[in-house]
Amino acid sequence: MTIDTAKSDRSKVDNLGAADIVASGDRLTGSIADTDQFSFAARGLSTVLPQHIQPGRTGYWQHQFDRLANRKQPVYWHLGMANGQIRYSGSRFWSSQMLIRVARRYVLRTRSEAVQSQLETIESRIRSEALNPSQVLAMMKQANIINEAQLLAALRTKILTDLDLYLLMGSGSAKFIAADVDVQLPIAGFSPIVLLNEAQQRQVQWAQLRKLIPSMKLCPILGRAAIEKANLPNSQQRRIETLIQSEQSLSAIAEDLAKDSLEVAKMFAKLASMGLVEFKPPGKQTAASVMVIDDSPVLLSQFQHWVSALGYAVTICQDGNSAVAKILATKPSVVFIDINMPEISGFELVKQIRQHPDLQRISLAILTGEQKLSNKWRAQWSGCEFLTKPLTTAAIADFQVQLEELIPRLLTASASTIEN
Questions:
Q1: Residue 348: CA count within 13 A, CB half-sphere
Q2: Which tens digits make up the pLDDT trace of 248-271?
Q3: What is the pLDDT of residue 327?
């Protein structure tokens, strides 16, 4: 059955999540075999994707990334398009609820109590009347909650923000799922080439910003001494204090301001470069600790900076021969190990750790600058994760994103092992 013959089911499909729709693919596309597919290498998605966005086709490119493939629940990124233009981006398909979420995140007007009350009423009607996104959008326009320009700006910012993340997610595959995006999201859309070019420019900007702001989870605090020395006008000082008085993370501040995260990062990076603002990990530092073993003092320093910014206690070790003793003394939850060290290799060290009765449950990750498939296989055979070191400035952003995603997963695996 195609989407054209399933109009009666649209209200039900509209509010399904990505996994639900994929599971019921026959209702949308007839069969998965009918969809186009392509694969992409790490950092290759921005080059391959424009070749597959064709005029006259309406639906979603559903992307799955290799490094997220082993999760219990499937993790997808959907890029909705119609007539050669990108309309939407998200982990779930476009729906009435997604429209509300986008408005709440990127339209400042939705922060008012009156508009929040209106949105709650609309959400209640979505549940009771199964309203589709086009109907909800018409209601929001009529209530003066959002206009066409605001919706376009909100969707554009969301798409670019998603591209910030997913273009660095590494290799994977994509398949096309036909759907009536054109009807459910009746907007002009955005040129794929223009968006992807801007996304690549943003990657460069993020790479520069990460020197001062390694994570948007950091919480800004006042640099009191610098502020007093700068002798700022009272109005400017009050504005800075207002921004950070809630002790929220940079991500939360961006959400409260309904602004692009990159714009907020630029603003705080400028304040940080003047010493007016400093950063601390969110809340109290977690009890979980991370150790990195590497003979490079530069990598150790960078790693400590990046990981401590995520809220973890970090221990560094430059001598592989003393690593086991240091692990026993500090009891880290996760250990990152360089492959190529003098006197002892990373894999020899992994063997020593695995053979020690008190260290068998620790999660291990192999670090290497050599992208050899044999190294990756050996890491997997040893029960280790595998992470490639950043060998260029451009690769640092990728590495930081991977660290931010990998460490919680390693901590979960370590806790699960202990429970069992």
A1: 10
A2: 889 999 999 999 999 999 999 999
A3: 92
Token code pair at residue 17: 């999540």
Query: Taken in order 325, 326, 332, 335, is the CA torsion positive or negative?
Result: negative
pTM of the model: 0.72
Strand locations in 58-124 (E):
58-65, 77-82, 85-90
Helix, strand, or coil (residue 232): coil
Three-class SS state of 375: helix
Cα separation values, 109 from 5, 24, 126, 242, 255, Å: 38, 37, 21, 19, 13
To 5 degrees, how large is the angle CA 209–CA 365–CA 312?
A: 50
Under a CB-based contact definition with an 8 Å cutoff, are residues 304 and 350 in contact?
Answer: no
Q: Cβ(282)–Cβ(249) under 8 Å?
A: yes
Predicted confidence band at 35 (pLDDT cuts at 50, 70, 90)?
low
Q: What share of the chain is helix, strand, coil (3-state, %, to 5)?
A: 55, 15, 30
Return the DSSP state at 123.
Answer: H
